[in-house]
Specification:
Length: 404
């Protein structure tokens, strides 16, 4: 549905609060929430044209819903893509990409440091349908290049990674993918369009878990795929509408309202994270800090170039200690000494979250796999929220200062 009331050429900040389907006859200021599974047709002729796709108009919420359309248009405006389609979760967005971009006999390359469920979905579930997956280094572009085969259809990247904040160079991956007629898909859940717009760097498909920063207040699960009308709306959207991977209107409304404050939240969280990371790096009980905004990050220059000069909200750090057992005890002590931070593996929230990856998000890996991934027992991950920085420092000091 098109709304002609907005002028052309508006900036993303404006579109983040203004882009939506047109107001109803009641003139509501905040966007309406259309909790309706179906839509009444004015007459049989119109119904026939709408069902045949010859006329725009809502018929059934699995096909489209005005609240969902508003979220899709707003997110596409922020990502700078022609369109977006909304899905029930981030994983259903990745499933949608996998089921539409790949078929039996195809090959996909992705980083071994991607989100755990993505690795399971592509590497294990899709293998049952005859899709081959190669896992390569997040940071070594030559490994991606070397993994290309004649049947490679897609490169799938996620940057920065969870929890160690390793980056990959989106523009370089796009070049490799396109030289071989493959697609580049980028999971932008961590960075958000405020830090980077992968489509502008050459990505064909941009995937989101709306559950993280887009909602940003821990309320709903949501997902989306952004890109061109030809690929994302016509091919992926058609599958979505038949397959029922839809986002519910209520969740769409919540995450759409989240987009209104996304830029303010991400910039504030990123600024706090930089200060906190700098402070942690100087702390005697901290062995190492992983944060793209720090000059000590091996990919600091790439991060500043690719991420709009920002490091993002997520920090990981190793506490001091000797041997796995003591490292784990020390990390648990710091986590358990917090009184403000929430102990939860979720991220991207306005409430700061703290987690011990080796025993939670990466707990199912073998010790060997964890070591290869660089996720030690002393590692703690924080997703910085909007609390006062002094309160966060005090919260972490409680545990760090009492470490033996
Ligand atoms: C959380 C997350 C997902 C999965 O999203 P859900 O909404 O939980 O399904 C995918 N990718 C990344 C990077 C994530 O952080």
């Amino acid at each position: 549905m098109t709304d002609h009331s907005l002028p052309q050429g508006l900036h993303p900040e404006t579109l983040a609060v203004r882009e939506a389907v047109e107001r109803s006859q009641w003139g509501e200021h905040s966007e309406a929430l259309y909790l309706a599974s179906s839509f009444v047709q004015p007459n049989a002729e119109t119904a026939a044209r709408r069902f045949a796709g010859q006329e725009e108009g809502y018929t059934y919420s699995r096909t489209s819903n005005p609240t969902v359309t508003s979220f899709e248009r707003r997110l596409a405006a922020l990502e700078g893509t022609e369109c977006a389609v909304a899905t029930s979760t981030g994983m259903s967005a990745i499933l949608l990409v996998a089921l539409t971009a790949l078929k039996t006999g195809d090959h996909v390359i992705c980083s071994q440091s991607m989100f755990g469920s993505t690795i399971k979905l592509l590497g294990t579930e899709m293998a049952r349908f005859g899709v081959e997956t190669s896992f390569v280094s997040q940071t070594n572009i030559d490994e991606w290049k070397a993994a290309i085969r004649p049947n490679t259809r897609m490169l799938f990247a996620e940057t920065p990674t969870n929890p160690l904040t390793d980056l990959c160079d989106i523009a370089a991956l796009a070049e490799i993918a396109h030289a071989h007629g493959a697609l580049l898909a980028v999971d932008n859940s961590f960075a958000t369009p405020i830090l980077q717009q992968p489509a502008k760097l050459g990505a064909d498909v941009v995937v989101h878990s709306g559950t993280k920063f887009l909602d940003g207040q821990g309320r709903v699960m949501a997902g989306a795929v952004c890109g061109t009308v030809a690929l994302v709306d016509k091919v992926m959207g058609t599958f979505l509408r038949s397959g029922g991977l839809n986002l519910a209107p209520f969740n769409a409304w919540v995450v759409m309202k989240g987009l209104e404050t996304l830029a303010l939240r991400v910039k504030a969280e990123s600024a706090s994270a930089l200060e906190l990371a700098t402070w942690l790096e100087a702390h005697p009980k901290v062995a190492r800090v992983y944060y793209p905004g720090l000059a000590s990050h091996p990919q600091h220059a790439l991060a500043m170039r690719q991420q709009n000069g920002m490091g993002g909200a997520v920090i990981a750090f190793d506490v001091i200690g000797q041997g796995a057992e003591q490292l784990r005890a020390n990390a648990f002590h710091v986590v358990d000494s917090t009184q403000v931070c929430s102990i939860t593996a979720n991220l991207g929230d306005v409430k700061t979250t703290i987690t011990h990856p080796a025993s939670t998000s990466h707990g199912r890996l073998t010790e060997e796999q964890r070591q290869a991934a660089g996720i030690g027992q002393g590692l703690i991950r924080i997703s910085v929220g909007l609390e006062h920085l002094d309160d966060l420092k005090a919260d972490l000091s409680r545990g760090l200062d009492t470490l033996k």
